[in-house]
Amino acid sequence: QVQLVESGGGLVQPGDSLTLTCTASGTIYSSDRVFWYRQAPGKEREFVASVKWRDNIKVYSDSVKGRFTIYRNAAKNTVDLEMTKLKSEDTAVYFCNVNSVWGQGTRVAVSS
């Protein structure tokens, strides 16, 4: 079973950029889709972005479209989430997910 570790979170100011990395140990199959979700304080976990491992097809939530980009690196078994033009409402714990396996999350705080 794959294991996931997220990294790259931190405290940034509005308008800044940050890149999160999901590192997978184990096999991600070509038919798999890797997801990024986030959970803000007091809110439900919500979908952010996903990428299909085989063909690199990407999907984004409306709230991040045009600001976030998801990248997969098959050689490194990683999926990055490049976040630009960050807003206070992007503050959340960000989780990586594939095949019902979750990482422990990495915290992003956007504040002036």
In words, what does this structure look like?
This protein is mostly beta strands and 112 residues long. Helix content is 0%, strand content 54%. A hairpin with a 5-residue loop joins strand 5 (45-52) and strand 6. Strands 2, 4, 5, 6, 9, 10 and 11 form a seven-stranded mixed β-sheet that branches. It is globular and about 40 Å long. The termini are far apart. The chain has strands at 3-7, 10-12, 18-25, 33-39, 45-52, 58-60, 68-73, 78-83, 92-98, 101-102, 106-110.
Give structural attributes:
seven-stranded mixed β-sheet, 54% strand, mainly beta, globular, 0% helix, 112 residues
Give a brief outline of the structure.
The chain starts with a strand and ends with a strand.
How do the helices and strands line up, and which of them pair or pack?
Layout: E1 3-7, E2 10-12, E3 18-25, E4 33-39, E5 45-52, E6 58-60, E7 68-73, E8 78-83, E9 92-98, E10 101-102, E11 106-110
Parallel strand pairs: 2-11
Antiparallel strand pairs: 1-3, 3-8, 4-5, 4-9, 5-6, 7-8, 9-10, 9-11
H-E string: EEEEEEEEEEE
How many H/I helical runs? 0
The coarse silhouette is globular
Strand fraction equals over 45%
Structural class, from helix and strand content? mainly beta
- Unreliable spans are none
Could you tell me how far the N terminus lies from the C terminus, measured between alpha carbons in angstroms?
40 Å
* Approximate helicity band: under 10%
Number of strands: 11
Using only C-alpha atoms, the radius of gyration works out to 13 Å
Mean pLDDT: 96
Main β-sheet description: 7 strands, mixed
